[in-house]
Amino acid sequence: MKKVIGLLAAVSLLTAPLAQASTVTVSGSTSVAHVMEVLAENYQKIASKNVEVQSTGSSAGIRAAKDGTSMIGMSSRNVKQSELNSDTKEIVIARDGIAAAVNNANPVQNLTQEQISQIYRGEINNWSEVGGEAKPIVVVTRENGSGTRGAFEEIMKLQRTVNGHKVTAISPRAQVGNGNGMIKTIVANNPYAIGYISLGSVDDSLRAVDVNGIAATDTNIAAGDYQIARPFIVLMDKNAHINAQDFISYILSEDGQSIVAEEGYIRVQ
C-alpha cells in the first residue's frame, strides 16, 4: 500500500506542472481586463482550456510578461522599449477611446482638449469657466501605474520634465481612483466630478462629454476624429506555451474580434 501511495504521489508531482502550464495566465491593465474576461469566458467554452485573468495594472502586466510570472501581459498604453526584452512580442488586439466622463446631471456637453488639460492641471477650477454651474470642479484621476492614466497624460500633454525625468502635471488635489469601476462610482455619485475612463466602460450611470465638438464614438475613433484614444496591447514571450498562443489566435479571429466590437471597443482585424 505504501508503494502505491508513493507512486501516486510521484505521478501527482510530475503532472502538476503540466496541469498548471495548461492554464493560460493573463494579468495587467484593468481596462483591457474588461474585454479580456469576456474573451476568456467564451474561449473556455469552445476550447475547454482554462484562462485566468487578473487586473493588476498595465505596468505590472508588462513586468509579468517580461519576467514570465504571467504567460500574457495586458497594457492599455504604449510600451516603452526599456520595458521589453528581445523575446517579448507585442500584439494590438483592439483600440479604445478614453472618455472624459461627467455626472448625468452636469449640463456641460462639450469641452476642448485644452480645457480638459487645464482642468487636470488645476488651472480651471470652477464649472462656470466652461459653461457649467458656479460650482468647484472635483477632479478624479487614476492611480500611478495605470495604463489609462499613462495614455491620458501622454495624449493630453499632462507631463512635465523635472531634473531630466518626466513627472505628472496633474494637480495633486485630484482625487485618485483605482480602476475604471471606482472612477465611475465617484463621478456617478458627484454632480460636480469629472473623471477619465475607458470608453468601453461608459454606461448609463455617467456621460462622456464631446471633445473639440467630436463625440466619443467608435466611428469617430476609427476615423481619427476623436483624438483621445489608445491601443489595447497584449505581450507574451516569443516561445510562449502553445495554449497562450492559441488564445491570442482566438482573440484575433473573427469570433474574438466580434466580441471586441460587441463590448464597445474597436476591432483590429
From TrEMBL:
- Which range is the signal sequence, renumbered to this chain? 1-21
Keyword Signal assigned to the entry: answer is yes
Q: Per the database record, which ranges form the PBP domain?
A: 20-254
Task: Please name the InterPro entries in this protein's record.
Answer: PBP_domain (IPR024370), Phos-bd (IPR011862), Phosphate_ABC_transporter (IPR050811)
Question: Where is this protein localized, as stated in its record?
Answer: Periplasm; Secreted
The record's keywords, sorted A to Z, are: Periplasm, Phosphate transport, Secreted, Signal, Transport
GO annotations under biological process?
A: cell adhesion; phosphate ion transport
Q: Name one GO molecular function term.
A: phosphate ion binding
Q: Which Gene3D superfamilies match?
A: Periplasmic binding protein-like II
Please verify whether the record's keywords include Phosphoprotein.
no
Q: Which GO terms describe its cellular component?
A: extracellular region; periplasmic space
Q: What does this protein do?
A: Involved in the system for phosphate transport across the cytoplasmic membrane.
What name is this protein filed under?
Answer: Phosphate-binding protein
Which organism's genome codes for this protein? Shewanella psychrophila
